[in-house]
Amino acid sequence: MKTFVGIDIAKAHVDLFDTITETHVQFENHSEGIGRCTEYLVSLGPQLIVMESTGGYETSLAIALQSSELPVAVINPRLARDFGRASGRLAKTDRIDAMLLANYAATMNPPERPMRDRKSRLMKALVARRHQLLQMRSAEKNRSEHSHDKTIARSIRAITTMFDRELKKIEEQLKTIISDSTELSQKVQALISVPGIAETTATMLVTEVPELGQLNRRQIAALIGVAPINRDSGSFRGKRMTGGGRRRVRARLFMPTLVACHHNPVLKIFYQRLLNQGKSKMTALVAVMRKMLTILNTMIAKKEEWNPNLA
Length: 311
Known about the structure:
Layout lengths: L3 E6 L3 E6 L5 E5 L2 H14 L3 E5 L6 H9 L4 E4 L1 H10 L7 H15 L9 H27 L5 H30 L2 H11 L6 H10 L8 H8 L7 E2 L2 E2 L9 H17 L1 H12 L4 H22 L9
Parallel strand pairs: 1-4, 4-5
Antiparallel strand pairs: 1-2, 2-3, 6-7
Helix pairs in contact: 1-2, 5-6, 5-8, 7-8, 8-10, 9-12, 10-11, 10-12, 11-12
């Protein structure tokens, strides 16, 4: 019989449940505990291990398990919650959540997450840190508008300068990593050839969406969360909505999409046609984002640069 394992992640410990022995096991969430957890799972030989994305607490364990060639799927916590409600399990404890994840693995059999190499993990961390610094820098800039005291203004300028210095360091690190990789360099060069896509956005895409160029147009749209979702029942035809997917990628694609609507010759015409058909501006923007993603996906798959005649 196939063994499926669910792992509930907490800051201090991780709880395991497998579908064969129906046993709960707990390990501490530090290097020694992760080592013992990995040894235990290797001896168990599961068909699939499922854990939730918990904002970083799962990273070390997922890397250790994947390094031991164990099959790991990291899922959106919302999927586990919805599965629990559908199963009639409303109670919530670490042990119950581990059991729920094991049952989710056995029932839904989600795809394994491909293992990122060290360079990819570093790039992902640098891109995330860059976004954090930009948010903090923006907050300081906003405070400067209401600062009437010279001492406070000097303090804000000093902090802003520090943010600029750190941002420059991160951008230099990212450029070095990309320049050292022929594959990444080619992808970035292809992406920035598209009007509306700058180097920052291209770096974010190759880091946050490594699947780019490996999926079809429907899959890439669903992955990012810009695919329209039907809401029909009987004779009722509900409004199509988008959602799910990688929210952070959607958020960071908003401004590039806005730029493309005004400066990309293909997407500008597409955007205006949607507006002329009576679509709202936000609906049209999401449609442009979806079209832009499918174009980028095709370019990376074919290893081609921007060609408006083929878009």
